[in-house]
Automatic annotation (TrEMBL):
UniProt keyword Signal present: yes
Extent of the signal sequence: 1-26
Keyword terms: Signal
Species name: Herbiconiux flava
Name the record gives this protein: Peptidylprolyl isomerase
Amino acid sequence: MRKFPALILSAGLLLSLAACSTGANAADGCSDITAPGKASESVEVTGDVGGAQTVSFPSPLVADSAELSTVVANDDDEAPVAGFGGIVNVSYSVYDGQTGAAVGSPSTGLIAVSDTLPQGLQDALACSAAGERVALVLPNEDAAKIVSGAPGSIVMVFDVDRTYPNHASGTPQPAQSGFPSVVRDETGRPGITVTSTEAPDAAESALLIEGDGDTVADGDALLVQATSVSYAEPRSTSVNTWEDGSPQLWLASDDTAQTSGSAQPAGIAQFLIGQPVGSQVLVVLPTDDGTSATAWVVDILGVVPPAAG
């Protein structure tokens, strides 16, 4: 068997995540998720969370439906989870339930909690806090969506390193005059209305939501939601991660040699450095010839450690 490559989302510093739904970003829905069962409870895992895993279980291990067990729990009831539509940074291993053999090598990376994933896998990722280890057993119907040619059930063991919401969260700030209007729906998705076609002479920014996380530092890799609207008529959008379902990794640097090939616009990083994680920032960038401009709304979801890229 071979591991289905769509699950492995890490592909360098500036990557685009797989399709991500725009559901809740907290524990909403986590009170009624995939339950543990005899199969998942039989999975034994040793080794520190985040380190090398040694996994054993009786084989063949067969599950008629998905089963999910917590191997190591986070005892902090306030510890955040990604929620459905959020993103997690995990280390994980996959095993053939028929033979107990590992499928491929252990992997580490960012995974979007997307509704394209089997429900049991969504539950495992959406409702686990940082520091937790969970064991998931998927029946063959779902296993075949993850492992090509799976003859039976598969076992997946996840160590959760970090969780990220899918939109900014914090304190809304008063609107500033002279900037485009921004409104948000119940999922946090912003909409931008540009009422002027007169381009600003210089780049400028306004803080829309002030987060309460760590301060963004020069050189940080940032997980962001971003959308843009041109001042020029007719209004056009060059990037919309909400529409694409693809949060992006940007670099808190204006070194174009490092950001080349990404959707990150030149000159925007200076307005993100110094902002707390969880913030939403409106940035207006004029074109090089000064004839027009583009309004960007950026949600700073989190700082991604180097191992996740």
